[in-house]
């Protein structure tokens, strides 16, 4: 097993009660990282914390709350004021036609998917620089590279975060602090599962048939396993990953068709 050389490091993983955030926390737990995990639903978060403890033996502190609020961020930072690793993650804004979105809709999307990660970076990056170690991973979306027509708020807010971090990453790299993005395509999370179940009912076919249809849209011929995403996150957080700076790693089974990803 590859030793990532981050055992004993401290990490904050946002929106970690399920899905890709949970997968990242689990992978870091296996690497021996002490975890502070956040999510809005206390019961689900506590259950996930216990599952990670049992499976990995990691120290896990669950901090329920909404990370997109100042109170949620302060509670998380109080539990882990000097993280070595920060995994930014927040639920995406709704689908729809931009003509229907108000200023308030946009402000909520930008706050959750751009400003919240920036505020967490602001609170932690200088300490990382002083300690000469830091790994910041932003979970964004494949839409950063290939925009999705009915996800305009996500396209805009996440691209804004990516652009901001592209500049900051080059400023802090000399302190052994890296900032990179992880861009998911289709992964079998609860959200994707519910969408597949809906389509399967609508088309009167089985879940497995609809899952296969969804997977066939990628060159890999399948949807992703969240554990694969978590392992990619842990790799970017490794001690040996300090030369990976300002990159955006697309995990989409090859769906984005480009000579240079």
Structure, described:
With 261 residues, the protein is an alpha/beta fold. It is built from 8 helices and 7 strands, in the order βαβαβαβαβαβαααβ. The chain has helices at 19-30, 42-56, 70-79, 103-131, 152-172, 190-203, 207-215, 226-236, and strands at residues 10-13, 34-39, 60-64, 85-88, 134-139, 177-184, 248-251. It has a 7-stranded parallel sheet with strand order 3-2-1-4-5-6-7, with helices on both faces. β4, α4 (103-131) and β5 form a beta-alpha-beta unit. The longest helix is centred in the middle third of the chain and has 29 residues, at 103-131. It starts with 9 loop residues before the first strand and ends in a 10-residue tail after the last strand. The model has no long low-confidence stretch (mean pLDDT 97).
Secondary-structure blueprint:
Elements: E1 10-13, H1 19-30, E2 34-39, H2 42-56, E3 60-64, H3 70-79, E4 85-88, H4 103-131, E5 134-139, H5 152-172, E6 177-184, H6 190-203, H7 207-215, H8 226-236, E7 248-251
Parallel strand pairs: 1-2, 1-4, 2-3, 4-5, 5-6, 6-7
Helix pairs in contact: 1-2, 1-8, 4-5, 6-7
Q: Give the topology string: H per helix, E per strand.
A: EHEHEHEHEHEHHHE
End-to-end gap: 28 Å
Determine Rg (CA atoms, Å).
18 Å
Q: What is the percent of helical residues?
A: 40-55%
The total count of helices amounts to: 8
Largest sheet: 7 strands, parallel
- Determine the strand fraction and express it as a percent band: 5-15%
Oligomeric form of this entry?
single chain
State the shape: globular
Mean pLDDT: 97
Structural class: alpha/beta
